[in-house]
Design goal:
Length: 286
């Protein structure tokens, strides 16, 4: 069975005017299995966002030759050796993105934003003119109901709160039929209650539909509350990849020194247990 995501010796170097180049991701190899849920943690600037963008083929890895810099999703090549793969569109069809920036089109309705998830499957012409059929609309509405915001379907996306917008992005990934969801700091800048709802929704979706999930998180407390496997990055490298149960304050200080502090929530913000519902009879909404 092909891995949901496979990275082979992937690096990304950013040039800076007058200064030294910065290696944001340094020779990372990792495998995420189908249906697996993984939290990606690390202090600010450790390379989490860059890694997620590389995985989605939104940015190109360094060209180093020798089969390095290869990214595959479900066995389909996304990029290799600093070039996007010819089959990248097919690979992306399986990948849902839940990103804070460029997530939604604020002036379009919530419903239309979710319908964008269908675009991978319908003709470009029909998509351009927004000609979605009744079946597609029903599917999109069902996905919005699934993430608990069907009542906002007709509103413009920008009228929704940050947490609601993240749930629209999750509904879009469901409609898309994504088998892997990459979420880049989906709860950054959300209040604790909204953050919990977004995390609950992501994990419920993953459990119910067997969707692999990679979530970058600033706060380790969410990583340990919601995930079995944690990948920790520092200076562009993977410094830990293992069970969440190993992560505690002492271990984080070993990994990050003083910057461990920014990863640990003050106790008044302790993360409540996940409210993850399981519907064994659920059918994919797509
Ligand atoms: N487009 C870019 N050009 C130049 N440098 C960049 C670019 N994007 C990221 N970097 C640098 O690469 C490093 C890794 O950044 P990245 O955003 O991946 O880290 P992060 O772990 O996601 O951080 P945060 O938690 O603050 O989002 C940082 O030093 C950052 O300044």
């Amino acid at each position: 069975m092909a891995a949901a995501l496979q990275l082979d010796r992937v690096s990304k170097t950013y040039g800076s005017k007058g200064g030294p180049n910065l290696r944001a991701v340094d020779n990372v190899s990792l495998t995420i299995r189908e249906g697996e849920r993984v939290a990606l943690i690390g202090a600010s600037g450790s390379g989490k966002s860059t890694l997620i963008r590389l995985a989605a083929g939104l940015i190109l890895a360094d060209a180093q030759g020798g089969g390095s810099g290869a990214v595959h999703a479900f066995g389909i090549r996304v990029q290799e050796n600093g070039r996007l793969a010819r089959e990248v569109r097919a690979a992306r069809r399986n990948i849902g993105l839940v990103f804070q920036q460029f997530a939604l089109s604020g002036r379009l309705s919530v419903m239309t934003n979710v319908l964008v998830g269908v675009l991978g499957r319908i003709s470009a012409l029909r998509g351009t003119f927004g000609l979605f059929n009744a079946d597609e609309k029903r599917t999109a509405y069902a996905a919005l109901a699934e993430v608990g915001i069907a009542q906002h379907a007709a509103k413009r996306a920008r009228e929704l709160s940050g947490g609601q917008q993240q749930r629209v992005a999750i509904a879009r990934a469901l409609v898309q039929g994504a088998k892997l969801v990459l979420a880049d700091e989906p709860i950054a800048s959300l209040d604790p209650k909204s953050a919990k709802r977004v995390m609950d929704t992501l994990v419920t979706m993953s459990r119910d539909y067997g969707i692999a999930l990679v979530v970058s998180l600033h706060q380790v407390d969410y990583a340990t509350a919601y995930f079995d496997r944690v990948i920790a990055m520092n200076g562009g490298r993977v410094v830990f990849d293992g069970p969440a149960s190993k992560i505690n304050a002492g271990f984080l200080t070993e990994l990050y020194g003083a910057s461990a502090e920014e990863l640990i929530l003050p106790s008044q913000f302790a993360v409540a247990a996940p409210a993850v519902t399981h519907h064994p009879s659920s059918q994919p909404v797509s």
